Amino acid sequence: MWKKLSSSARWALLIAPLLLIAVGLACGNTPPLTVTLREADIDRILEQAVDAAVGVDVPVEITNVDIEPGVIRVFGSYVQNGIAVPGSADLTLRVENGMLRVEVTSVDVMGLDVDTEMLADVNEQLSRSFSEAASQGQVTFTGVEIVDGEVRISFRVNL
Description:
Strand content: 35-45%
Strand order of the largest sheet: 2-3-4-5
Shape: elongated
Helix content: 25-40%
Number of domains: 2
């Protein structure tokens, strides 16, 4: 059948799918992409976010990150009066209006008073850090899934 088509018809059949893809991209209808972050990635992102949110001079050390279905559990210590006090925090991720949102849902560090304003600052910095790590550019987030050992973040590139 291919041989029966004229030269221009063959070119049209070859170019048509490329044009459809180009039009789809021009209209912003890019296929969804997924970035997978593992525990080492989450650890690095959290270290940067905590330093940015509470200051590098605040003695917080993250010692372990455990990704479980639906939650990221972070273990570490906070130095208070020269004594390292162990503790943990739980994080959740969600997509809200095309933006990736990270929320600290619980903090369990003896003697550490986490006020609402500080928690809001940490949540905002974490959201920004995770978004930057996942997207590397301008995107619309479409979904997030936390499973054993990894976080899968889906998005569409805004063209």
